[in-house]
Design goal:
Helices cover 23% and strands 20% of the residues. It is built from eleven helices and 19 strands. The longest helix is centred in the middle third of the chain and has 16 residues. The relative contact order is 0.15. This is Reverse transcriptase domain-containing protein. Pfam families: RVT_1.
Length: 409
């Protein structure tokens, strides 16, 4: 370590080596360094702790799905047990939606009142949607009929995702050609992670989300994140690629304006695009730059870990719904809210949205859509006809708090 200062004001800096092109610096009191307090771990112990229990502040770095991860040795990275948020390492430059995710619940739009399940495929009951239980007739019957007649707007399986016409929207990297391409050193995985990786890659291949890359000049490593459910989530370390891409400063909507605009509406429907970013293809000139390692070879991939993907998506939906946004609709990236001041107008407003979705071949996720409710959670806020309300989940302890039994409480 290096010491500076004198006597009791002295401090020491501990440099911890990693394979990243920086060193971890830790400040220590001199008293502790000479053994007056608890003994200080050895350098080896500190380095091992950094590798297995790192706490680098990701919010201050320009990161992609995993670009906040230190580039540690393969075996150390494979053992690392990051939290969900730290492991994916996204901030708003990469994916503006991430600010609404927490470790307990990842929904950004959801109802808060009771809903009922309806079936839109007749007798098989394989295709279901959710509508509000408080809907009055004839609105309820008309809404069910409308959803049944527009079931093609939903992706009931991956094969139903048609993809946006590349002539209407595609993602460009706008690479800085003065930056030298990076082929990351291939990482090793433990057997269980390797198995999960191949299963995920096979799904991407089967669903045509990826294609084989022939001679890529940029190659990134896959990273597996274990969700709270115990399932693995495939991420890509696009840190090097993202650093070579200038930021797209296309404006993302102001959340407070959007939330305020939801008050005074009798009915709302919460919509979510199916695997949103994957509905936009990569531009052919940029596709192979997104290549990732796999036991089956190299594949290129469009994912929301890419820099500016959020801006690309917001630009598209602003174009699609320009006539409706601010009137009967609010759109934040792939989260959509259809709103009606009069309940009797809601189906007509939904019809306008569905016509546009069909025109652009954009499909919705039936599991994340709810129709015809009076209140719900939108971008982290509880919204209803009365305006913004307190989230019941956040004030449950207060609601259940026993009233004082005496003057002294």
């Amino acid at each position: 370590g290096t010491h500076y200062g004198d006597q009791r004001e002295a401090r020491s800096l501990m440099f911890l080596s990693t394979s990243r092109n920086f060193h971890m610096i830790e400040e220590q009191d001199t008293d502790n360094s000479i053994g007056l307090n608890n003994p200080t771990p050895s350098d080896a112990e500190r380095t091992n702790q950094f590798a297995l229990d790192t706490d680098i502040p990701l919010a201050d770095t320009d990161v992609s799905m995993t670009s906040g991860l230190p580039k540690m040795p393969n075996e150390a990275l494979d053992q690392e047990q990051y939290s969900y948020e730290k492991d994916i390492g996204i901030h708003e430059d990469m994916d503006p939606r991430m600010q609404f995710k927490d470790k307990n619940h990842h929904a950004r739009v959801e109802p808060v009142e009771d809903v009922e399940t309806i079936y839109v495929d007749g007798l098989t009951q394989e295709k279901s949607l959710h509508i509000g239980v408080n809907l009055q007739e004839p609105i309820r019957s008309c809404l069910i009929q409308f959803l049944q007649s527009n079931s093609d707007v939903f992706a009931w399986k991956h094969e139903d995702m048609k993809g946006i016409d590349p002539q209407k929207a595609c993602h460009r990297l706008n690479l800085d050609m003065t930056v030298k391409p990076v082929i990351q050193e291939r990482r090793k995985f433990s057997p269980d992670r390797q198995k999960a990786l191949e299963e995920e890659v096979n799904k991407l291949i089967d669903n045509k989300f990826v294609k084989e890359a022939k001679y890529p000049t940029w190659i990134s490593n896959p990273v597996l994140v274990k969700k709270a459910t115990g399932l693995w989530h495939l991420c890509i370390d696009f840190s090097d690629l993202n650093q070579a891409c200038p930021k797209d400063s296309y404006p993302i909507p102001h959340i407070d304006y959007m939330v305020d605009a939801t008050s005074g509406h009798q009915l709302m429907s919460f919509l979510d695009a199916y695997s949103g970013y994957n509905q936009i293809s990569m531009h052919p000139d940029d596709a192979e730059h997104t290549s990732l390692y796999s036991a089956r070879g190299l594949y290129c991939y469009m994912t929301f870990g890419l820099k500016n993907a959020g801006a690309t998506y917001q630009r598209l939906v602003n174009k699609m719904f320009a006539r409706l946004i601010g009137h009967t609709m609010e759109v934040y990236v792939d989260d959509m809210l259809v709103k009606s001041e009069q309940a009797s107008d809601h189906i007509a407003h939904l019809s306008e949205v569905f016509d546009i979705l069909q025109k652009y071949s954009m499909v919705l996720n039936p599991k994340k859509c709810t129709f015809g409710v009076g209140s719900g959670k939108f971008l982290g806020y509880m919204v209803s006809q009365r305006g913004i309300e307190a989230n019941p989940a956040k004030i449950q302890a207060i609601l259940e708090f026993a009233p004082p039994a005496s003057i002294n409480g």
